[in-house]
């Protein structure tokens, strides 16, 4: 009789162990707490953080939120690669290099195209009047960045090759100094550096990215987190979209908040915001196709050692 009782206990224990959340006593265990670790730059995600609405919406799901601020997209993607964050925001170029390096990247959402937010600028008294005039000139830009791709596409559109210019690889602060002292002929840059150069250096627009490059921003996660937490990511994207919609109809207030974050004069930020297209969209195959063009261009330029298949970084469930 005792043998039968012992066998029954063992059988019940094995069954309980096979059921998630069920103790041997038969009681349901509390679900493990979930967390969303966000890595943000000083931008839209920072505004969302200040509102606290994301935490309120995720609380009923038992999800807590942590925030870590980064100064650049590549650093965020490295944090994703080593498992330190679950979500972040970035421009269009850094994900290409992160995927090439083996990061478990998953594209989750994107901004609308923002072509007027990046441009080729020249000094106000420059003799350059057209993109074709860049031939043989010293053009500064951030290597392997969004404007690197934009410049290549712009040159092609105007009948020039990348080899027709004299590239000068400079970070935005160094490029601004070179622009100011006249050691470069043109500067390819994005907002708010672009707006600041117009306001304080008298920079003149030669061409922006309209009809050349979409210049989207992206929101990313890891493949594992996206697979295991689609409900969390849907809420995050929805809250970002709400912040975007507010910014679209409250541009002055949006600019004022960013001016505080960036430490820039409000009129400069306002100029940048006035040419910003607001809107958040889910990832589609055509959007990843835009990224594929960037990846292929960088591979052709020798910036990416191997060909990147951007579709492999689609979040699980992309149709």
TrEMBL record:
Residues 1-29 form the signal peptide. Its main location: periplasm. PROSITE patterns: TAT. SMART domains: PBPb. Keywords: Signal, Transport. InterPro entries: ABC_SsuA_sub-bd, Solute-binding_3/MltF_N, SsuA/THI5, TAT_signal, TAT_signal_bac_arc. Residues 35-266 form the Solute-binding protein family 3/N-terminal domain. It comes from the Bacteria. It is found in: Periplasm. GO terms for cellular component: membrane; periplasmic space. It holds the Pfam family NMT1. One of its GO terms (molecular function) is ATPase-coupled transmembrane transporter activity. NCBIfam families: SsuA_fam (TIGR01728), TAT_signal_seq (TIGR01409). Belongs to the bacterial solute-binding protein SsuA/TauA family. PANTHER family: ALIPHATIC SULFONATES-BINDING PROTEIN-RELATED. Part of a binding-protein-dependent transport system for aliphatic sulfonates. Putative binding protein. This is Putative aliphatic sulfonates-binding protein. It comes from Paraburkholderia bannensis. The lineage of its organism: Bacteria, Pseudomonadati, Pseudomonadota, Betaproteobacteria, Burkholderiales.
């Amino acid at each position: 009789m005792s043998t039968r009782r012992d066998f029954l206990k063992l059988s019940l224990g094995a069954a309980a162990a096979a059921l998630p959340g069920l103790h041997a006593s038969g009681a349901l265990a509390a679900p493990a707490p979930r967390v969303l670790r966000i890595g943000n730059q000083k931008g839209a995600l920072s505004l969302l953080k200040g509102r606290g609405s994301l935490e309120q919406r995720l609380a009923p799901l038992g999800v807590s939120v942590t925030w870590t601020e980064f100064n650049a997209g590549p650093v965020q993607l490295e944090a994703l690669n080593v498992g330190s964050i679950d979500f972040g925001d970035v421009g269009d170029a850094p994900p290409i290099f992160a995927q090439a390096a083996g990061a478990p990247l998953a594209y989750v959402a994107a901004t609308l195209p923002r072509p007027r937010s990046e441009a080729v600028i020249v000094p106000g008294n420059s003799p350059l009047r057209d993109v074709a005039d860049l031939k043989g000139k010293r053009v500064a830009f951030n290597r392997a960045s969004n404007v690197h791709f934009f410049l290549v596409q712009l040159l092609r559109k105007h009948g020039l090759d990348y080899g027709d210019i004299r590239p000068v690889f400079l970070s935005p602060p160094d490029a601004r100094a070179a622009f100011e002292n006249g050691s470069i002929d043109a500067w390819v840059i994005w907002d708010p550096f672009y707006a600041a150069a117009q306001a304080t250096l008298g920079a003149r627009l030669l061409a922006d990215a309209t009809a050349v490059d979409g210049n989207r921003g992206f929101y990313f996660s890891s493949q594992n987190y996206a697979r295991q937490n689609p409900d969390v990511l849907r809420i995050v994207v929805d809250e970002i979209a709400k912040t975007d919609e507010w910014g679209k109809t409250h541009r002055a207030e949006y600019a004022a908040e960013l001016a505080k974050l960036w430490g820039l004069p409000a009129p400069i930020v306002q100029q940048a915001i006035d040419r910003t297209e607001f809107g958040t969209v889910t990832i589609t195959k055509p959007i990843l196709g835009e990224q594929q063009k960037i990846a292929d261009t960088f591979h052709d330029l020798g910036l990416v050692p191997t060909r990147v298949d951007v579709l492999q970084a689609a979040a699980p469930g992309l149709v």
